[in-house]
Structure formats: C-alpha cells, structure tokens
Request: fold
Amino acid sequence: MKAFLTVLAASLSFAWTATAAEIPGFETYFGFDWVRFNPDTANIRSFTADGGSAQFVYNFSKGIGAAFDVGAVTKDTLQGVFSNKQSHFLIGPRFGFYNHSRFTPFGEVLFGVANASVSTDILRVPTVFPSSSITLPDNISASLTASRTSFAMMAGGGLDIRLTKHLTYRLVDADYFLSRPVSLLTHENVNKNNVRLTTGVNFTWGAER
Reply:
C-alpha cells in the first residue's frame, strides 16, 4: 500500500510539474473586435462597432497573471453623418486553465478607462438640423467633435487553441463591457452595458512557469 501511495504521489507530482512547465511567461494577443453598444437612452438606438485590440499578459505562477488590454472600435451612424469611435485601456487579473490538451480556457476581470468620441463634417450639420445653414470657403473643411473619458470594466473569458508551441488561436473571448460616462443631458454618470467579442492570434513566449 505504501508503495502504491508513493508511486501515486510521484505521478501526481510529475503531472503537476509538467503542467506548470507548459505555462508561458508572457502572451501577446492581436485580434478583431466586435462590440454591441447599448446606450440605454431612448433617443439613441443600440448599434454595433468593429475594430481591433491587443493584449499583453504576464503569467506569475500556475496560470495566474496580469493582463493589459487596449483597443478601439468605430462605427458610422445616421447614414454616415456621425463617426463614432471608442477606445479602451484596461488592466487586471487573468487566470488560464492550462493543461496537457491544446485547449486553454481563461477568465479575466479588467479595469481602466474608455474614451468615446463622435465627430461630423460641419457641412453635414444641416442634414441633422435642416433649419441651420453653414457655408465655408472653397478648399476649407472643418469638423465638430465631442468626446468623453470614463471608468470602464470588462469581465468574461474565452478559449485559446494551441497551434504550435508559441502560437495559439483565440477562438473567442466574450466580455461584459461596462462604461460609466457623464450624460450630456443630466450631467450624471450613467451605466452603459455593452458586450465585446474578440477573436485572433495569441503569441506565447518567455520563460515557462
């Protein structure tokens, strides 16, 4: 019995060591983003925007790491009159469920800021406000831009599929995306409950953990 327990303990120890050794020190992700924005305002409909993001991860030990996520998406609305852009800069804890298979599920909770902006060519203002009239000299262009920076948070997870030792394909990363900008109407912080989906390639490198 002692011999069996000794062999079992040794086997588990070896399996744990092997699993831990497969965890990379660093990860760098580049992907395509799709974001569903829900303004929660009666006068503005929900809309989707697309763009890209990058994420850098430092794994401390046993799959526990810190992630820095940056990205931006754009969308033209009202038949192209307005150009909308939102970017984010987030950082937070990330946990990867590394194992002997090619599949690595992960979860993350990130905090930081989001910047939202909307702009339009000044000559297109009469399209929205027919009673207005704007003229500019020839060869002169101008635009109107409004922007807001607010607290933001993402919480979710996804699945990486290992293709080679240093390359994985991120099948999907689905996150609840919260931002809290100041309302232009009430001047109070309002919750914007959005959803982000991203897919792309993830490069793993550095000393294994």
Summary: The longest strand covers residues 143-164. The helical segments are 2-21, 125-128. The CA atoms of residues 109 and 155 lie 4 Å apart. The beta strands are 26-37, 47-61, 64-77, 82-96, 103-121, 143-164, 167-180, 192-205.
